[in-house]
Specification:
Blueprint lengths: L20 H8 L3 E5 L2 E4 L1 H20 L3 E3 L4 E3 H7 L1 H4 L5 E4 L5 E4 L4 H11 L8 E10 L14 E11 L2 H21 L4 E5 L10 E7 L5 E6 H5 L14 H8 L3 E3 L5 H7 L5 E16 L9 E3 L5 E3 L1 E8 H11 L1 E2 L2 E2 L10 E5 L5 H16 L4 E4 L5 H11 L3 E5 L1 H6 L2 E5 L5 E4 L1 H9 L1
Parallel strand pairs: 3-7, 19-20, 19-21
Antiparallel strand pairs: 1-2, 4-6, 5-6, 7-8, 8-16, 9-10, 10-13, 11-12, 11-13, 13-16, 14-15, 17-18, 21-22, 22-23
Helix pairs in contact: 1-10, 2-6, 2-10
Bound molecules: adenosine-5'-diphosphate and magnesium ion.
The site of magnesium ion has 3 residues, from strand 13.
């Protein structure tokens, strides 16, 4: 991409109503624009990051055996009347009527829709387990939308739904998601802590929230330090094997968010030097809810005994658009965003310090072409701007590498590379610079 032809409307100052750093930086970097409270247009740079995160989530869901579908944003109220949630959901649900006066709603989640699909096609335990997921916009008419994409009204969520023949099988499905989630956040460069969450009216132990630490987070977490330090399980685990030990290794360590926190247990189970209290951002939430939807909606399968019984369900959400803000909260400095390589909108900015100078243009074009061929998604800064302005905007938007081409270097056969995260610079031949960036 050539910056002279791109659309990256960076701002010098953040609008006054942006309170937290990620919201400020997303506006300043020209990633999003607010259209209404909690409703955003995604501008080109923001969209590239959103798509990258979405793709990481997709790959890890696929790896764990889930299957992607795309559900509609508009849903029939009648389905929600079947589950009994139409009235319960309250003011957060955006209710709509079509021209035939049928009640529709903009989906805040999709348990009913997916249960309806399941019951239409799947009748036997032999077709289980199944886990279907959806990466789609949701709408919740939040009372206080705030912090930009962190608490929006319209937001992108990955929601997965598992279907199993009994509780033991459902637990295996839950464990897969528990570990897949840890891998997702690790690939995004984040340290996420699974904390026990309120499982709601169903009871039981099976609900976890995944929290990344950030001072601006809305949740307070209490956790055993060893859990915070423990890495993700990695992609090579046997997804069809017994995952319980890997899950238990983590869930046996104390971790709770405010509403589930038990100070006396915290003190009894965690030695003082390991007690960690921090603020964090909820970036995922998984539930096992048993027959909550399958019973009223009659999603039944015939079991090995020939009898029909409601399936055991779970649902698993990742806040994809919230993660854009979450990653920035975790990774920025005074100059702007520092994207982890995995989600950076472009891999390298090629900075032409003297556009119009034949020699400099030639080297910049050569670097741009070579980086494209290496799959590094280069952005060529060919704007007619002062070097200082170029560096400031490229630092702001957080591209992991800058490859700087100027007249002095070109005369000596050299370019400069800068790593955004560390500020470290090296002067090298173009060939050597490409090798460093490719590594
Ligand atoms: N208003 C919102 N804006 C952005 N992301 C959200 C919002 N509400 C929920 N999410 C994300 O979607 C994930 C799944 O949502 P869920 O747990 O069902 O919602 P809740 O946290 O309201 O119970 C959350 O972990 C969070 O990351
Ligand atoms: Mg939640």
């Amino acid at each position: 991409m050539r910056l002279s032809r791109y659309f990256m409307p960076t701002l010098r100052e953040a609008p006054a109503d942006a309170q937290i750093v990620s919201h400020k930086l997303m506006l300043r970097a020209g990633m999003i624009r607010q259209e209404a409270a909690g409703i955003y247009a995604w501008l080109p740079l923001g969209l590239r990051v959103l798509k990258k995160i979405e793709q990481v989530v997709r790959e890890e869901m696929d790896r764990a055996g889930a299957i992607e579908v795309l559900l509609p944003t508009l849903q029939l109220a009648d389905l929600w009347r079947e589950s009994g949630r139409y009235d319960d959901y309250g003011d957060e649900m955006l209710r709509i009527k079509d021209r035939h006066h049928r009640d529709l709603l903009y989906g805040p989640t999709a348990e009913e829709v997916i249960t309806d699909i399941f019951r239409a096609y799947i009748k036997s335990y032999k077709d289980l387990p199944k886990n279907l997921y959806n990466i789609q916009w949701k709408f919740r008419d939040e009372r206080r939308p705030r912090f930009g994409v962190m608490r929006g009204r319209e937001f992108l969520m990955k929601d997965a739904y598992s279907f199993d023949v009994d509780e033991a099988a459902a637990r295996r499905s839950y464990n897969r998601m528990f570990l897949a989630y840890l891998n997702i956040y690790a690939r995004l460069g984040l340290k996420a802590i699974p904390v026990k969450a309120d499982p709601g009216p169903i009871g039981g132990e099976l609900s976890h929230e995944f929290i990344i630490l950030a001072d601006t987070g809305e949740s307070e977490v209490f956790a055993h330090g060893d859990l915070v330090e423990m890495g993700a399980p990695g992609q090579d685990i046997d997804w069809d094997g017994d995952l319980e030990p890997l899950v238990a290794q983590r869930s046996c360590l104390y971790a709770a968010s405010d509403e589930m926190h038990d100070p006396s247990r915290f003190e009894a189970e965690v030695p003082p030097e390991k007690r960690m209290t921090a603020r964090g951002i909820e970036v995922g939430h998984i539930f096992y809810f048993g027959e909550k939807y399958s019973k009223p909606m009659k999603a039944m399968v015939t079991g090995p005994d020939g009898k029909d019984a409601p399936i055991h369900g779970g649902s698993y959400g990742v806040g994809v658009s919230r993660l854009v803000g979450g990653i920035i909260e975790a990774s920025h400095d005074d100059a702007g965003i520092i994207w982890p390589d995995a989600v950076a909108p472009f891999g390298v900015a090629v900075v032409n310090l003297r556009p119009g100078s034949t020699d400099v243009d030639a080297v910049a074009e050569q670097a741009y072409k070579a980086l494209g061929e290496l799959g590094k998604e280069p952005l060529l800064d060919d704007r007619d701007e002062r070097p200082g302005a170029k560096f400031a905007s490229l630092d702001l938007v957080g591209i992991p590498w800058q490859l700087i081409v100027g007249p002095k270097g070109v005369a000596e056969g050299m370019v400069e590379i800068k790593r955004r995260a560390t500020g470290e610079r090296q002067t090298l031949s173009l060939e050597a610079a490409l090798k460093v960036i490719a590594a």
